[in-house]
Amino acid sequence: MSTDALLLRNLPNFSLEATRRVVATRYGLEGTYGQLASERDLSWRIERTDGRDVVVKISNVSEPEGVVDMQVKALNHTFERDPDLPVPRVVPSLAGAAYEWIEDERGSRHMVRVLTFLSGKVMEQVEEAFSAGTRFNIGAMVGRLAYALRDFFHPYADSNVHLWDISRALVLRPQIAKISDAGLRQLCNEIFERAERFTLPQLSKTRRQVVHQDSHGGNILVDPRNSTLPVGIIDFGDMGYNSIVADIVTASETFSKHDDDPIAYLCDVTSGFDSTYPLEENEIDLIFDAMLLRLAMATVIVEAREATDESGIPHIENASHYPRMMELLSRQGRAQAVRRLRQACRFPVYGATSTEGERLADDYDALRREREAHLGPIWHFYNKPLHITRAAGAWMYAADGTAYLDVYNNVPQIGHCHPHVAKAIYRQASALNTNTRYMCDVAVEYAARLTADLPGHLDTCIFVNSGSEANDLAMQIAMSLSRHDGGLIIDQAYHGCTEFTTALSNESWRHLPAEEHPKRIETLMAPDMYRGPFASDPQAAAKYAADADRAIATLSERGHRPAAFMVDTALCSSGVLRAPENYFNLVAEKVRSAGGFVIADEVQAGCGRMGTFWGFRANGLKDDNVDFITMGKPVGNGHPLGVVILSSALMKRFLNGTYPLLFSTFGGNTVACAAGMAVLDIIERESLVRRSAETGEYLRHELRRLAERYEIIGDIRGRGMMTGVELVTDRLTKEPAIQQTGRLVEDMLARNILVGKGTPNTLKLRPPLIWSGNEVDIFVSAFEGSLGSQQ
C-alpha cells in the first residue's frame, strides 16, 4: 500500500443503528452508545445498565484478518503473563468467536470485535497528569506490557503496515515536501537523513519483539482520584514487531503546552520502563535519536494529512506540540540527552564518541575542578589524570573513546568487567545480600572452594572487605595469640592503609626521620639479587635472612617481640624482587622460633598472579611455614572482598580470647562471595594459572630481547603475570634511571599503554591473567618505541 493511501484513513461507514443491530445480534449486548476517537477503525463505547461497559471496534476495510487475530491473541497472552496489567479483555461473540465478519451497505467486509471498557480519564486530557510521577508510572506500565509480550509470536507480527511504524519511517520521506515552514522542513530532512544513516540501522540491533507502540497520552488512562496513577492502556491497533525503544518514545510524545524540556519527559518515562523491563546499553543510547525520529514522523503525518481530502476529520488534539518539542529536543542536543538518560536509569555515565564521530564527553577541566572540590587532591598515576569511563578485558577506555592497554592495574585479575563476574553479582544481589550472621550457602561454598588445595592447618576463612582489613585483622589475631606486639616487614613493603597496616608499610614512612618510625615495627633488608649487598653471593639466602636475627634483636632492645612476619612474597612494592631460593623459609623459621607467626600477604601475589594460584608457593615458602594467608583486590575482581585464611584451631583460640564477637557487617556478604566464586570459575575454566605462567615467560623473553639493544634496561625479573623492569643509567654502576623511568611512564601513556612504578626506577607490570601473545606484542612494540625515543 502506498504512503498516500495510508494517509487516507477510510473510516468504516456504519451508522449508529447499523452498529447497534450488529452488536445485539452477534454479541447480545445493548446499552447507550458513545463514539470514540480512532484513526482507522470505528469505535463505540456501550454503557450498560449493569456497569460492565464494553468497546465495539469495527475494523477498517483494508485491515488484514491476521493483524486483528494478532491483537486478540496478544491481549490473551498478556492476561496469561500478567493478569493484573490493566489492558482490555476480549469479549467473545455469542458464537464464541474473538471477532466476527460483517458487511457494510456497499458489501465491503469488516471485522467487528468487542473488548472490555477500562475506566479512567484519558491522560492527555488531565492537566494534573503532566507530572514526573505520572510519566514514570506510565513508563513502568508500558514496560510491564512489553515484558509480558517478550515471548509472544504471531505470523502477522511484521505485517501490520501503518504510518506510525518507526522501522518504516523512511516511507514518509517524500511527504516532507508538504511541510509549509522551510525551517521545519529542513529539520525533518536532517532527522530523516540521520535516521537512514544511523538511527534505523542501530535500532535494528536492539531487542525486537511484538510491542504496543501506540501508548501515547491518548491511549493511557489515569485514575480520576490520583492523576499520577495510570490505570489502563488501550488501542492495540498499531501493535507490531519492532524495537522495544518504539514503546518508550511513543509513551514520551505527549507534551503539554507548558512543557519545555523534552529530555526530562524522556528520562521519566525511560526510567519507569527500565524499572520493569531493564534496558541494555545500545537501547538507552538510542532513545534520543528515536524520539527525534518519532516527533519528525508525527510532524510529517499531520502536515501531509492536511493536504488530503480528510484534512477536516479530527484525530490528533493539539498536534502543534510535535514540531515544537522536536525543535526543543534538537537544540538541547544528543550529548546532554544521552547523559541525562543514563543518569536517570543509573547506567554509568561516560562520554564516549558516537559512531558518527560526535563527542559526548564531559568537559575535562570542569570535571577535574569538581573532583578536587569534592574529593580533595587525590593522588593519581600520571601528570594529567585520565578520565576513564569504561573498561573491558585488557583495555580501559577514556571519555574521548581512546583505548588504553592496561599493564598496571592488578585488581581486575581476570580482566575488567568480566561478564561472568558481573552476572554473578547481579544475580546474587537480586536474590539476597546479607552478612555471615545468617546461614547462606554461597559463603560456605566459597570458603570451602578457596581452601580446597591448602594444607589442613589453613582451613578456615574470615571475610572482610579489603586487603588492608585482612592484613589488619591477621596482625591483630597474631598479636592476640602470641601475646607479642611487634612486627617484621621487608623494606619498601606496602600492606594497607589502616592505621595498623600503614605502620606495617614502610613505603609510607621510610622517608621520615628515624625517630618518627613506628617503634614496634622493624624492617628487614630486601633480598635484592640485582643490586643488593649479597646479589652475587652463593650464600645470599642465608646472609639476607640473617637480617631477621638483627631485626628481632632490635625489637627486643625496644621492649617488643615479633607477633608476626608479614610478607608479600612477590616483593611487589620492593621492585618485584626475586628472592634467593629458600630465603623466605629461613626467615620464617627464625620468626617462628621467636614466638611469632608468618603472614603471607597474597593480595598482589595470589589468585594466579605468580604462575601458581598461591604466590607463596611460587616463591618457595613451604606450606608448613605459613600461619595466615591474606587476600584482597583481585579475589573479587574489583568487588570489595578480603579474606584471612588460618587454622580452625587458631580461630577458636582467638574467639575464646580477646575478640569473642568478631564480626564485619559487610565482610563475606553474599554478593562479594558470589563475585569470588565467579573469579574462581573463570580461573579454572580458562586455565588462567597455566596461561599466566606461559604468557608471563613470553613477555619476559621479549623484554630480554629488547635489553640486548637498550642498555637502560638493567634487570628483568618476575614470575607469571608479575614482572619488574629495572632501569639504570649505567649497567656497571647500576645507577637508577629515575628521571628516565618517569618519562617512560608518560611516553607509554601517550602510546596508549598504562604502566606504573614499583620503585622510582622500576616498572611494575601486572596485566590481567587473560593476556595472550597479542597483548604482549602490542606492549613490547610500544615499549620499544618509548625506549627509542629516550635515546
UniProtKB/TrEMBL annotation:
Keywords assigned: Aminotransferase, Pyridoxal phosphate, Transferase
InterPro entries for the chain: Aminoglycoside_PTrfase (IPR002575), Aminotrans_3 (IPR005814), Aminotrans_3_PPA_site (IPR049704), Kinase-like_dom_sf (IPR011009), PyrdxlP-dep_Trfase (IPR015424), PyrdxlP-dep_Trfase_major (IPR015421), PyrdxlP-dep_Trfase_small (IPR015422)
Keyword Ribosomal protein recorded: no
Entry keyword Transferase: yes
Superkingdom of origin organism: Bacteria
Domain Aminoglycoside phosphotransferase positions: 43-261
One GO molecular-function entry: transaminase activity
Matches recorded under Gene3D superfamilies: 3.90.1200.10, Aspartate Aminotransferase, domain 1, Type I PLP-dependent aspartate aminotransferase-like (Major domain)
Cofactors that this protein relies on: pyridoxal 5'-phosphate
Similarity comment: family membership: Belongs to the class-III pyridoxal-phosphate-dependent aminotransferase family.
UniProt cross-references to PANTHER family, sorted A to Z: ALANINE--GLYOXYLATE AMINOTRANSFERASE 2-LIKE, PTHR45688
Protein name as annotated: Aminotransferase class III-fold pyridoxal phosphate-dependent enzyme
Species of the source: Mesorhizobium caraganae
